[in-house]
Amino acid sequence: YGFCTGFDSDNSSGDFSEANHKVPEMLDLDPHQSNRTGKHNGETEIQENGIKRHRTSLPAPMFSRSDFSVWSILKKCIGLELSKITMPIVFNEPLSFLQRITEYMEHIYLINKACSHADPLERMQAVAAFAVSAVASQWERTGKPFNPLLGETYELTREDLGFRFISEQVSHHPPISAFYSEGLNKDFIFHGSIYPKLKFWGKSIEAEPRGTITLELLKHNEAYTWTNPTCCVHNVIIGKLWLEQYGTVEIVNHSTGDKCVLNFKPCGLFGKELHRVEGYIQDKHRKKLCVIYGKWTECLWCTDPTTYETYKKSEKRGGEQKKKLVSEDDIKSENDEADDMPEIQDTVQFIPGSKLLWRINCRPPNSSQMYNFTSFAVSLNELEKGMEAILAPTDCRLRPDIRNMENGNMDVASKEKERLEEKQRAARKERAKDEVEWHTRWFHQGTNPYTGTSDWLYSGGYFDRNFSDCPDIY
Questions:
Q1: CA 94/CA 104 separation, integer angstroms
Q2: Which parts of 337-379 fold into alpha helices (H)?
Q3: Separation between Cα atoms, residue 373 and residue 145, nearest integer Å
Q4: What CA–CA distance (Å, rounded) separates 267 from 261?
Q5: Which own/partner contact pairs does 156-163 have at CB distance under 8 Å and 24+ positions apart?
Q6: Is residue 150 predicted with pLDDT exceeding 70?
Q7: Strands 52-53 and 259-264, sheet pairing
Q8: 3-state secondary structure at position 72
Q9: How far apart are CA 415 and CA 185, in angstroms?
Q10: How many CB atoms are closer than 10 A to CB 320?
Q11: Which residues, 6+ apart, have CB-to-CB distance to 309 below 8 Å?
Q12: Which one has a higher pLDDT value, 173 or 332?
């Protein structure tokens, strides 16, 4: 679920046969919403300016999950590690976890903004907004990404957005995904490894992220590191699934000593704190430079600490300041770049004089029938004409279970998923028999140069496209 991985396992006992389970009726997709750029068979339309236009819809709408009970599967697994549980494919979304990580790059304009600022405080503000935006795509995404197979990879080059990205599943037990991205203008490097620790609490599933995320701004000779907040999916037994993020995220600028502390607040008893993020940026002498507030599902603002404290005091006194919904007019007056902002009504209590750091992108009108994907997520598994010839044979786009699910062939997708898991089990047994160790292809285990902690580092060479020694995993 969400950013959680580890449910599907090559240790599955096979008690639940997905292929034999009845698949529910397909939802109707509004034909007026399903324009795929007018091209077929994965061809991508080229606009007049030469930029590729990515698809705006999935080939088939999602299946209804209403006929399935998560509890019917989980109740057999009480006491087991979550990595031993195999979930039916209907609870998935047609993306690999490696593709899900790539969604960090949806708001890459915030990295570009950080690169362009001369002031280190403004750079930290942009980096903080980027760190929050990285988890925003999870909002209402209660589908579970496919667990990557050991050795699986995903690459993405977006010339229009100015970056390229490569990730690899470097470990299966425990599941660890490593990624590396760089600006095409050589202005930044963004890399890290993610190892979520899963806990099942009966009514909810919690994924505590392990692993460091590092952003290097090359022009400024700066490096920032942080770890994502904890992600929790509620109502896994009964009721409507909903997701929250909570915990403290500390972003450290290792060059200046500045630090940004962001508190993702837990929902609380009456939902008052739901989705709220509050924090501050301090310098190396612990002097507060600014306060940041907002919601990870909506927007992020910053203001100076004095204004913030004054406002909070007057609010406690029940003064003139009442909860105020932010309108487009407020945003236009507070932010010069409001013309690029989507028309979304915020529910964040706005403090006059605040600066807008980030707002969530509008989702496609048919998003609810496409696993609540963003426009960026819709494009991730697109297999364009000629791409198969240049991709690594381990790329997620070539996974038959994900491809069939995306196309609406659920029975075939289930059978393919079982086949791939069985193939992975057999390969592991063969290695154990021959006492052969698994070797990663594009990343190696090392030490993060800024935190001194264990990390997976990019070995280089992927984009030379020598794929002769890639494993056969599909």
A1: 18
A2: 375-379
A3: 12
A4: 19
A5: 156/102, 156/105, 156/380, 158/105, 159/51, 159/184, 160/51, 160/52, 161/105, 161/108, 162/108, 162/112, 163/105, 163/108
A6: yes
A7: unpaired
A8: helix
A9: 43
A10: 7
A11: none
A12: 173
Separation CA 228–CA 465 (nearest Å): 32
Measured distance between the N- and C-terminal CA atoms of the chain, rounded to whole angstroms: 23
Other C-beta atoms lying within 10 Å of the C-beta of residue 312: 13
Verify cis geometry, omega within 30 degrees of 0, for the bond prior to 174: yes
pLDDT at residue 305, as a whole number: 96
What confidence category does residue 206 fall into, taking pLDDT thresholds of 50, 70 and 90? confident
Name the residue type at position 221. Answer: N
- Is the CATH number 3.30.43.10 carried by domain 70-316+343-359+387-464? no
Contact 405, 95 (CB under 8 A): no
Given a cut of 80, whether residue 326 has pLDDT beyond it is: no
243-246 contacts, C-beta under 8 A, 24 or more apart: 243/1, 243/2, 243/138, 243/139, 243/140, 243/141, 243/142, 244/274, 244/275, 245/135, 245/138, 245/275, 245/296
List, for residues 79-106, the tens digit of each pLDDT value: 555 555 566 787 889 999 999 999 999 9
Conformational region of residue 206, where left means phi above 0, alpha means psi within -120 to 50, and beta covers everything else: beta
Whether pTM > 0.85 for this model: the answer is no
From 288, 215, 289, 303, select the one nearest 253 (Cα to Cα): 215
Q: Which residues pair with 53 in a beta bridge?
A: 45
| DSSP codes, 273-308 | TTTEEEEEEE-TT--EEEEEEEETTTEEEEE-HHHH
Q: Which two tokens stand for residue 460?
A: 């280089």
- Picking from 372, 445, 71, 8, the residue whose alpha carbon sits closest to that of residue 198 is 8
Average pLDDT, rounded, for the chain: 82
- Cα–Cα nearest to 347, from 363, 357, 359, 339: 359
How do beta strands 454-458 and 52-53 pair?
unpaired
Does residue 59 contact residue 378 with C-beta atoms inside 8 Å? no
Distance between CA atoms of 9 and 56, rounded to whole angstroms?
Answer: 32
- Overall size of the chain counted in residues: 474
Give the start-to-end residue ranges of the domains of the chain.
70-316+343-359+387-464
Long-range pairs, 327-336, Cβ under 8 A, ≥24: 331/356, 331/359
